Amino acid sequence: MVKRTSTIEIKVGLDENNVPERIQWKAEDKGKKATPSKAKALLLSVFDEENLETLKIDLWTKEMQVIEMDRFFFQTMRAMADTYFKATQNTELATDMQRFVQYFGEKTEIIPKGEK
pLDDT, tens digit, for every residue of 9-52? Predict the structure, then answer.
C-alpha cells in the first residue's frame, strides 16, 4: 500500500528547432516545496511494466561541453554499476561494468590511469 507520494517535475525550454536551451528540475521532499535547479543534461529511463521495455529520454543543452558529457556519462555509468549490484547481487557482472567505467574514465581523462 502506498503511504505517500512525491512529485518530480522537469521543465525543458526549447529553441525554434526544438533543441533544449534550458533544463530545470525540482522534486518535492516530505511535503516541502522545492525550488527549481538548473541542469545541462538528463537521462531518464523508465521500465514499462506491461511491455517489459525501457523507455528513455536523453536531453542536453547547447551549452553542454564534451568534457562535461564525458564526466556525466562516467558518473552515470558508475552509479548504474553500483545500482545493478545492489539490485541483483551479481558481483561478476557488476565488477565487469566497473572495469569498463574505469576504462572509460581513463580514456576520457576524467580520472588518471590507475586511479579509482
Answer: 999 999 999 999 999 999 887 556 778 999 999 999 999 999 99
Cβ atoms of 80 and 86 within 8 Å: the answer is: no
Map residue 42 onto helix, strand or coil. Answer: strand
Question: Which pTM was predicted?
Answer: 0.88
Spans of all domains in the chain = 1-62, 65-110
DSSP string, the chain: -------EEEEEEE-TTS-EEEEEEEE-BTTBPPPPEEESEEEEEEEETTTTEEEEEEEE-TT--HHHHHHHHHHHHHHHHHHHHHHH--HHHHHHHHHHHHHHHHHTTSS-TT--
